[in-house]
Design brief:
The chain has seven helices and no strands. It is mainly alpha-helical and about 200 residues long.
Length: about 200
């Protein structure tokens, strides 16, 4: 929403500057409703929908933090049967909460990449293939390539199979790389936050 507000503000400033120097009797009007419908509705609904599972996970971990679940279970299997101190109980609970955050974070990244990189339906995929084949035929006609009928039919079948594979591979490639990029950015942000708690950052701030 903040980005949408900045975009609308920049467009408004540009429109006012253009309106100041334009010489037309009926200058174009700025369509706020159409612009806000595009830039506010989808991001706002997406933010609200993404808050629901995150709030559920936070509430669940908060309830676990205040409960006595797995209190007598040590974090190291070598400590089985020993009496745990308060410090060991706190460290074990923190480790389990950190592991839960990591698992839920990976789950959110996985499903988020699948939702953001949308996979086309079968009619949309056929439409994409038909459009590609049409563009190839137009390109071949423009280049005036002379090929025999048999070779042309064989090439069309091969290209059609390759295009189906390439579309599916491209979607999988986008999803995997989007997941990896988000994971690397998350690791960088965690390292940056951990660095802010070090003595080096405290002494040189």
């Amino acid at each position: 929403m903040l980005i949408s507000s900045i975009v609308i503000l920049a467009i408004t400033i540009f429109w006012l500057i253009t309106l100041t120097f334009v010489r037309r009797q009926n200058p174009p009007s700025l369509r706020f409703k159409q612009l806000s419908r595009i830039t506010f509705k989808q991001p706002s609904s997406g933010c609200l929908l993404s808050v629901v599972p995150i709030a559920f996970v936070v509430i669940l971990l908060k309830l676990y933090q205040g409960s006595n679940l797995f209190v007598n279970e040590p974090d190291n299997w070598l400590d089985q049967g020993t009496i745990m101190t308060v410090k060991q109980i706190v460290n074990a609970k923190r480790g389990r909460i950190g592991l839960a955050f990591t698992i839920f974070g990976l789950i959110f990244l996985y499903f988020g990449s699948r939702m953001i990189v949308n996979k086309p339906t079968e009619p949309e995929e056929r439409e994409i293939l038909n459009q590609k084949q049409k563009n190839k035929r137009i390109e071949q006609m423009e280049m005036s390539q002379e090929v025999e009928q048999k070779d042309q039919l064989f090439d069309d079948e091969v290209h059609e199979k390759e295009e189906v594979v390439n579309i599916r591979r491209a979607i999988d490639w986008k999803r995997r790389h989007f997941f990896v990029c988000c994971l690397l950015v998350s690791i960088f942000l965690v390292l940056k936050m951990e660095y802010s708690y070090t003595k080096v950052f405290q002494n040189n701030i």
